[in-house]
């Protein structure tokens, strides 16, 4: 028996080896751009990372030093406004389509619309916020930027939370109903706690997407040379600062653009780590 | 097919009103009939057992008694089910209230993705329990023969328990909300003989206060614990599908020693099919 299987076994092992090498090779190729970008940003931007980056404003052309205080906090503020709008809306939408509207026409339409929304180019989201917020209030503002970002964030939150809700077995809902809970108690106290990891994932993914967006902010949040001046005033953001300074002829501003890129990456990393930490316990 | 609504019981019980009553109940999933035309009376402080081959609709019928079927897409209930004389499916009846008073232990263990403690406390809390929660948790777990195994890890997830432990947790959860009726769908199918015996003892104990309906595939269990037994079977329909129906419903002693139907005799003596 043993020798009968030996040739097949060798061939199989050879095939397995080739395929493994192929997969590892493809992984490495896919990793090259990622690592190259990270390294490049780290080398060019990491060197200047000090406390001044978070405490000082960008200097005028030809002046040395300075920091990104306005853009850093501006990004945090627009992201916060974006999340404040998109996270509750996204979670409630997902709850509707999965828990209450399952199979109804309305839910199908809502789901179709979120899918379309997730394919909308980000500049269109900016135009939308420009039309809805900037034109009606008559000024560029952090709120307008947040609205633009929320348009991009909503479909991501909806989709991840929907996935989470669908992964919860129906038996769990029956159990909750079975001890006399009503629909609201079932959703809010049994189902939602169980999908917390998915909510955190959705929020992280949407934040990561929004943190790097420039186009929707260009004509909504605009930019500001100064510190935070209220939610209804224009505000600087890291991505717009990168856009402005990267094409500037002054070396100090170019350096600050690299630092800003590095800070954006760190910010996304930080958000991911925090959300992982908060949701370590997986449920199912 | 033979549908014999048998309402014979011991004379003293016949005098009292049934707690739950099914009259001509048929249950459909979509357009296929799963169970047809069941007449059945369930009396207070008794244990009623549902037996019969797999797929004959025992779980389906059991779920109707507390309107859990409302949540299953496509499920439709026809006929009349009354609880203390009130039509459970009447418009003004609140299904949430029905399920508070008629609790359920499901065939598949389904603990909440919460701590063991909160698995028990959840139901009590939403039902406005005012007493000592720690005491209720300990008492419920003790009655479900689980306390000794989990008393040191009440904070751990209910899902970290073994299948049999999860089922006992579900039993503890059901009795913690103190319903009037407890519907148990094969509560012991994942349990070892010792836990099974503990659950059977528990049922005897609970019967003083509550009314129990239990689905079981274990003939000894049905004959040991129940006062009344309903035997279901599935018959071929003209369309080729299977349709469940009630063959015979009587005192457990009669079902196991002197059934009226040959089918029943064959089934309970293991000569079925
Ligand atoms: N959710 C459902 N949707 C559609 N059909 C169902 C559903 N649940 C059960 N059925 C059908 O109804 C019939 C009765 O099922 P049921 O689960 O009540 O049987 P059972 O007597 O409890 O069987 P078992 O002893 O195996 O638990 C079966 O033919 C089954 O296919
Ligand atoms: Mg069943």
Tell me what you see in this structure.
The complex is a heterodimer of chains A (284) and B (273). Chain A is mainly α and 284 residues long. In chain A, 76% of the residues lie in helices and 0% in strands. Chain A is built from eleven helices and no strands. Helices cover 34% and strands 26% of the residues of chain B. Residues 1-15 of chain B have low confidence and may be disordered. Chain B is of the alpha/beta class. In chain B, strand 4 and strand 5 (86-87) form a beta hairpin.
How large, in whole angstroms, is the Cα Rg of chain A? 24 Å
**Helicity level of chain A, as a percent range?**
over 70%
Major pleated sheet of chain B:
6 strands, mixed
Estimate what percentage of residues of chain A fall within beta strands.
Answer: under 5%
Structural class computed from helices and strand pairing of chain B: alpha/beta
Question: How big is the Rg of chain B?
Answer: 19 Å
**Span between N and C termini of chain A?**
44 Å
Strand order of the largest sheet of chain B: 6-7-8-3-9-10
Counting DSSP E segments of at least 2 residues, the number of strands of chain B comes to: 10
């Amino acid at each position: 028996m043993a020798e009968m299987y030996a040739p097949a076994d060798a061939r199989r092992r050879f095939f397995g080896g080739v395929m493994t090498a192929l997969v590892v090779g493809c992984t490495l190729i896919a990793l090259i751009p990622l690592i190259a970008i990270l390294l490049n940003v780290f080398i060019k931007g990491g060197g200047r990372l000090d406390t001044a980056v978070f405490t000082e404003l960008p200097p005028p052309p030809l002046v040395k030093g300075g920091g990104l205080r306005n853009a850093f906090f501006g990004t945090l503020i627009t992201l916060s406004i974006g999340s404040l709008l998109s996270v509750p809306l996204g979670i409630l939408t997902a709850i509707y389509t999965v828990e209450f509207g399952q199979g109804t026409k309305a839910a199908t339409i809502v789901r179709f619309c979120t899918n379309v929304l997730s394919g909308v180019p980000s500049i269109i989201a900016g135009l939308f916020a420009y039309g809805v917020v900037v034109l009606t209030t008559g000024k560029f503002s952090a709120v307008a930027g947040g609205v633009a970002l929320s348009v991009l964030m909503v479909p991501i939150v909806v989709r991840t939370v929907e996935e989470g809700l669908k992964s919860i077995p129906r038996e769990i809902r029956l159990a909750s109903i079975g001890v006399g809970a009503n629909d609201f108690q079932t959703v809010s106290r049994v189902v939602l706690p169980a999908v917390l990891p998915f909510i955190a994932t959705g929020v992280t993914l949407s934040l990561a997407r929004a943190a790097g967006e420039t186009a929707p902010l260009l004509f909504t949040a605009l930019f500001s040379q100064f510190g935070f001046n209220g939610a209804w005033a224009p505000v600087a953001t890291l991505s717009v600062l990168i856009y402005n300074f990267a094409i500037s002829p002054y070396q100090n501003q170019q350096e600050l653009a690299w630092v800003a890129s590095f800070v954006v990456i760190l910010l996304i990393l930080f958000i991911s780590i925090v959300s992982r930490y908060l949701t370590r316990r997986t449920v199912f | 097919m033979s549908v014999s609504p048998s309402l014979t019981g011991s004379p003293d019980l016949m005098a009292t009103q049934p707690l739950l009553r099914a009259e001509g109940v048929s249950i459909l999933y979509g357009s296929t009939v799963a169970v047809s035309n069941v007449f059945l009376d369930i009396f207070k402080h008794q244990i009623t057992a549902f037996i019969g081959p797999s797929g004959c609709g025992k779980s389906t019928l059991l779920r109707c008694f507390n309107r859990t079927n409302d949540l299953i897409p496509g499920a439709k209930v026809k006929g009349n089910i009354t609880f203390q004389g009130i039509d459970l499916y009447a418009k003004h009846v609140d299904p949430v209230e029905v399920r508070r008073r008629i609790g359920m232990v499901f065939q598949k263990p389904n603990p909440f993705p919460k701590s063991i403690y909160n698995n028990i406390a959840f139901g009590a809390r939403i039902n406005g329990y005012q007493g000592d929660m720690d005491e209720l948790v300990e008492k419920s777990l003790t009655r479900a023969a689980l306390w000794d195994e989990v008393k040191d890890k009440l904070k751990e997830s209910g899902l970290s328990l073994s299948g049999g432990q999860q089922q006992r947790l579900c039993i503890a959860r059901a009795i913690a909300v103190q319903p009037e009726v407890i519907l148990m769908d094969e509560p012991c199918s994942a349990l070892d003989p010792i836990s099974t015996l503990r659950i059977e003892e528990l049922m005897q104990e609970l019967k003083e206060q509550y009314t129990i309906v239990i689905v079981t595939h274990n003939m000894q269990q049905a004959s040991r614990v129940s006062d009344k037994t309903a035997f279901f079977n599935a018959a071929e329909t003209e369309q080729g599908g299977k349709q469940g129906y009630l063959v015979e419903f009587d005192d457990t002693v009669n079902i196991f020693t002197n059934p009226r139907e040959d089918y029943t005799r064959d089934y309970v003596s293991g000569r079925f099919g």
